[in-house]
Specification:
By secondary structure, the protein is α/β, with parallel strands linked by helices. 19% of the residues lie in helices and 28% in strands.
Length: 715
């Protein structure tokens, strides 16, 4: 209709112009005169001419008024819609294209170089490509499925970038700024905004997308985005409070999804009043300056710039993912909680303080704080005061809280009653709450004890201690059940040897906590019925018994009984403290699980006994004196004892020739060091005594030889 009026007006203007031209031509035609005409006729003609001139003036006035009216109509039409390229205004100023007239696209448009927008622009669902920087002082409306592509930086100084229709996309290769820049390039507050509407009433979500290759900078008094998706490769910087969440929903998860897509560390540098919402993307390495909030869309790790950050906005929703914060955290949100979510996990590499609101844990939730976990308030000077924050755990959830250092609770808020609380430092409940399960898991000692402090009304259902030592300071009656592991004592060490007149003492040490206990040692003649106090072997048997080298059988020691090969292996194995054995059983006559099996394998593993050519060890065979000397010689080598020997030490004895060639070195060593001596009458000469190398060694002789070997090599 407007186009018809426009054509009609143009035709009317042409006709009017023709009339004017004809009138002017007629007015300028010469008037015929005759000398014979009368003065009356001349006067009449003059009057007619005057009337015609008056008509001409009226006609011109009407034409001018019509023309002015048409110009106004045309101007209004051009302001309403500018759909003809002939009406576009392109002014080049300093190499920039300036759009100073309102523009409405009816096709895809590309602008080479920089573009300055000084009038509203409507994309109407088409694509505007700027092959340079874009600075807009007015509104850019994308329309449904509209797309804006900026190959450089995009600055919205004033007006809005409207993306409230379905399928809108803004793709910026450089920085996207909702602000102005001063002459020095510093961002200052502008009035440009980014307005988005949710497309689906059912989900309150928008499918609009903003891709930013550089930084996203916000310093404006206008709208900040609160719906859709932002894919960001640079830093997120707000110099004015920016709300990326939906105020009308009241919780996280309904606002903007910011995906951090950079290849290196990206920075979140926002104001205290900036509220972030959904956080995701492929980059898990984020540096946070000052303030942090939002809901995780994936596992993420953030590092606190300067070592500390504050949680603000609507708090944090881990949403079942893993959030790692490297630095100290103060939770100071007035509008939201720290929700870990089902099977979610937070890891704080530093101290954590719940100043207000709650940390919320549910089934499978884990909160891990390597430093101190504080639930209390802080005044303006940083002093500890009673707070209003808390830690809330769903009933029966059995969430886990791991605290590397101290746990301090001083608040009117919730305590994690249904959580499993593992504390590495001291536990303090200044209020006096009810606690379900607390485990003190710190590394304690006599100089580093763990302390439990709890208010008068407080109680702990189950208190578990990690160590078995007396390294805890716990108020009496503050727990219903106390679980502490038993000591794991070693085999003990003789700290006072037993003599016929002095009772000995053995000291045992706990292998876990280092605690000690002592036991008195009885004399063997008081234990075994076949050992007399005046027997020549009494001291040797006493030594072997109290050092756990040899034991008796019931009430008898059986000193004169022959010693078998496996028994000697067991004696040496016990003397060594029964270490771990790693080799497989190579012997046919050694049954797995037999009382001597580990001892025999240990002897084989350490080269003390090799067994026989037939594949047997010789279980049950009495050991000869020379074979005993061989095994002791090899044991001395294993221990690094003195192996000095006189190669002719065995010469001169009555039965020297009975010593086997394979046993001569061991026998010379044993005789040289007094481990083996000759048998004969008292006072008999060497030639009158026997070494008895093939004779059977008994238990008393073994005890005597072993005592001499060890005592000779005490350092």
């Amino acid at each position: 209709m407007r186009k018809i009026k426009k054509v009609f007006g143009m035709l009317l203007s042409v006709l009017m112009c023709i009339c004017i031209s004809v009138s002017f031509v007629h007015a300028k035609e010469p008037i015929p005169t005759e000398e014979s005409l009368a003065d009356e006729e001349i006067s009449s003609e003059v009057e007619e001419e005057s009337e015609e001139e008056q008509i001409e003036e009226e006609s011109v006035s009407e034409i001018e008024e019509s023309s002015e009216k048409k110009d106004e109509e045309t101007k209004e039409e051009n302001e309403e819609i500018n759909d003809s390229d002939d009406n576009d205004e392109y002014n080049l100023q300093n190499g920039e294209t300036v759009w100073s007239e309102k523009k409405s696209l009816n096709e895809n448009v590309a602008v080479n170089g920089n573009l300055v927008v000084k009038a509203d622009v409507y994309l109407n669902g088409y694509t505007l490509t700027v092959n340079g920087n874009l600075v807009s002082e007015k509104t850019i409306d994308l329309g449904e499925y509209g797309k804006l592509i900026v190959k450089g930086n995009y600055t919205q100084e004033a007006g809005d970038i409207n993306m409230y229709y379905n399928g809108t996309v803004v793709d910026v290769s450089g920085d996207f700024a909702l602000c102005k820049f001063d002459q020095s390039g510093k961002p200052v507050k502008g009035s440009g905004g980014l307005y988005r509407e949710f497309w689906s009433e059912a989900t309150c979500k928008s499918d609009s997308v903003i891709n930013i290759g550089g930084d996203f900078i916000v310093n404006t008094s206008a709208y900040s985005p609160n719906r859709g998706t932002i894919n960001l490769k640079g830093d997120l910087i707000t110099l004015s409070d920016a709300i990326f969440v939906r105020w009308d929903i009241g919780s996280l998860g309904w606002g903007v999804t910011i995906n951090f897509m950079g290849d290196s560390q990206q920075t979140i540098d926002v104001t205290q009043g900036t509220y972030l919402d959904k956080l995701g993307g492929t980059n898990k390495n984020i540096l946070v300056k000052n303030y942090f909030s939002g809901q995780l869309e994936d596992n993420i790790s953030v590092t606190a710039d300067g070592g500390a950050l504050t949680v603000n906005g609507r708090g944090i929703n881990v949403n079942g993912y893993v959030l790692t914060i490297n630095g100290t955290v103060i939770f100071d949100s007035e509008d939201g909680n720290f929700e870990v979510g089902e099977n979610g996990k937070i890891i704080v590499q530093g101290d954590y303080t719940q100043k207000q609101r709650n940390m919320y844990l549910t089934y499978g939730s884990v909160a891990e704080v390597t430093g101190n976990l504080n639930v209390y308030g802080l005044d303006k000077n940083g002093n500890v005061v009673k707070g209003s924050g808390g830690i809330y755990v769903d009933w029966g959830a059995d969430a886990v809280i791991n605290v590397g250092k101290d746990f301090v609770f001083n608040t009117r808020g919730y305590n994690p009653e249904d959580a499993i609380l593992n504390v590495g430092g001291n536990f303090t409940d200044a209020i006096g709450k009810e606690w379900d399960e607390i485990n003190l898991v710190g590394e304690v000692s006599k100089t580093n004890k763990q302390t439990v402090t709890i208010g008068a009304e407080g109680s702990i259902q189950k208190l578990t201690l990690k160590s078995c030592g007396d390294f805890y300071i716990i108020p009496d009656g503050c727990y219903s059940v106390l679980e502490q592991p038993e000591h794991k004592w070693d085999n003990g060490k003789v700290t006072r040897a037993t003599t016929k007149t002095v009772q000995g003492q053995k000291t045992f040490t706990c292998t876990v906590c280092g605690s000690t206990r002592t036991e008195k040692i009885k004399r063997v003649d008081q234990i075994f019925t076949d050992i007399s106090l005046d027997a020549w072997y009494w001291a040797a048997v006493q030594y072997a018994y109290e050092n756990d080298m040899m034991a008796g059988t019931g009430s008898e020691f059986k000193p004169t009984a022959n010693l078998s090969r496996e028994q000697l292996a067991q004696v040496l194995y016990s003397t060594e403290g029964k270490p771990e054995v790693t080799i497989k059983n190579p012997f046919d006559d050694v049954k797995d699980g037999a009382w001597y099996a580990k001892a025999v394998l240990w002897a084989k593993q350490n080269g003390i006994a090799d067994g026989r050519p037939d594949g047997n060890f010789g279980v049950g065979n009495p050991i000869t004196r020379q074979d005993l000397a061989i095994m002791l010689y090899k044991y001395a080598a294993l221990k690094g004892y003195n192996l000095t020997k006189n190669d002719s030490a065995i010469e001169g004895y009555k039965d020297t020739e009975q010593v086997k060639a394979y046993a001569k070195d061991a026998m010379n060593w044993a005789v040289t060091n007094g481990i083996i001596s000759g048998k004969g009458a008292k006072g008999a000469s060497k030639a009158e005594t026997r070494l008895d190398p093939a004779g059977k060694a008994n238990r008393a002789e073994c005890a005597a030889m072993l005592r001499t070997l060890i005592e000779n090599n005490k350092k």
